[in-house]
Design goal:
Layout lengths: L6 E3 L2 H11 L6 E6 L4 H16 L5 E6 L4 H7 L6 E6 L2 E7 L4 H8 L13 H10 L3 H11 L7 H13 L3 H9 L7 H18 L4 H10 L4 H13 L3 H15 L6 H13 L4 H14 L1
Parallel strand pairs: 1-3, 2-3
Antiparallel strand pairs: 2-4, 4-5
Length: 290
C-alpha cells in the first residue's frame, strides 16, 4: 500500500463498486490494471502515483492486481497490461494501454480535471490563485494540507474559510474565522463574515424570481427590493445589489432600521476599499447622505 492517501488497492467486486464506481461520482478515479510479472506495469505505477499526488485529492488511483481479481478484469474486458481506465460519474470515460509518457497522461487527465498544483510554488499563493480562478475544491485541499501542521497562518485560515463558504459549509467557515486572532487580518475576516451573513439571510428569503415578480407589480415594494439585494449578494452579483441598496437608501433610508445603509457598509467590507465598485458606490452614498 502506498503512503499516498488517494491511492488504494481494490480487492473484490464489492470494493470495486464502492471505491471506484461510487467514488467516481465525486471525483475522477484512475484504475490501474497491473500484474507482478508485467515489467511495464512496474514502470507505470510509480508515475501514476506521482501524478495522483500532484492533484492533492482531486484524483484517486485504484490498483487492481489482475492475477487476483480476474472477475473485475473480465468485467472491464481488459486484454493487455498495463491498462488504465478513467472512471467518472459511475462509468469509464477514457483510458489507455501500455506504458505512456507523463505528458500524455497529464494531457488525458486535463480533459476532466484542472491543472494540478505545481510543486515548489508557495502553497498559500497557489491556493489563492486556485480560489481566484474558481477552483475552490483544489484550493481547499491545498489549504487543508498547509494548515495540518503547526503553522496556522491567519491568511491561510481566512482563505480556507472562504473555500468552506463557497461550498455552503457555513458553520465550519465561521468556526475557522473564530480561530483567527491576528489584528492584521481584520478586513479579510470582516469580508468573509459579511458573505456568511448574506448566505444565511438569503436561505430564509423568497427566491429571486418571486421577488422580481413582486417588484414588477409594485416598484416601491421596499421589502422585496431589500430581499432581492440580499439574494444578489449571496450570489456575488455585487453591482446590481449595490444599485438596489442605494435606490432603497435614497427612497426610504429608515426602512427596516436603516437596513440599506448597514448592508451597503457590509458590502464595502466584503469587497475592500480598493475595489472599484466600493470607490464608486461609497461616493454615491456620500452624495446621497449630504
Amino acid at each position: 500500500m502506498t503512503e499516498n492517501a488517494f491511492v488504494f488497492d481494490v480487492a473484490g467486486a464489492q470494493q470495486f463498486e464502492q471505491l471506484v464506481v461510487q467514488n467516481s461520482f465525486h471525483k475522477p478515479v484512475l484504475v490501474d490494471f497491473w500484474a507482478q510479472w508485467c515489467a511495464p506495469c512496474k514502470v507505470l505505477m510509480p508515475l501514476l502515483e506521482k501524478i495522483t499526488a500532484d492533484y492533492a485529492g482531486e484524483l484517486l488511483l485504484a490498483k487492481v492486481d489482475c492475477d487476483v481479481e480476474q472477475d473485475i478484469v473480465a468485467r472491464l474486458g481488459v486484454q493487455s497490461l498495463p491498462t488504465v481506465v478513467l472512471f467518472k460519474d459511475g462509468k469509464p470515460v477514457d483510458g489507455f494501454t501500455g506504458a505512456q509518457k507523463e505528458s500524455d497522461i497529464r494531457n488525458l487527465l486535463s480533459k476532466y480535471l484542472a491543472e494540478p498544483v505545481k510543486k515548489g510554488d508557495d502553497p498559500l499563493e497557489t491556493a489563492q490563485s486556485l480560489f481566484d480562478s474558481g477552483e475552490f475544491a483544489q484550493a481547499e485541499a491545498l489549504l487543508k494540507e498547509l494548515l495540518s501542521g503547526d503553522d496556522q497562518q491567519p491568511a491561510a485560515l481566512v482563505l480556507f474559510a472562504r473555500c468552506l463558504t463557497e461550498r455552503g459549509a457555513l458553520a465550519d467557515a465561521e468556526a475557522v474565522l473564530n480561530s483567527v486572532t491576528d489584528d492584521v487580518q481584520k478586513h479579510p475576516v470582516a469580508a468573509v463574515r459579511a458573505q456568511l451573513t448574506f448566505l444565511r439571510q438569503a436561505a430564509e428569503l423568497p427566491d429571486m424570481a418571486e421577488l422580481k415578480t413582486r417588484l414588477g407589480k409594485d416598484a416601491n415594494d421596499d421589502e422585496a427590493l431589500l430581499q432581492l439585494s440580499i439574494q444578489q449578494l449571496a450570489r456575488q452579483m455585487y453591482e446590481p445589489a449595490l444599485d438596489n441598496l442605494l435606490q432603497l437608501f435614497v427612497r426610504n433610508r429608515s426602512f427596516a432600521e436603516g437596513a440599506a445603509h448597514k448592508t451597503l457598509l457590509q458590502v464595502f467590507d466584503l469587497l475592500g476599499t480598493e475595489h472599484p465598485l466600493v470607490t464608486l458606490y461609497r461616493r454615491r452614498l456620500y452624495q446621497a447622505l449630504y
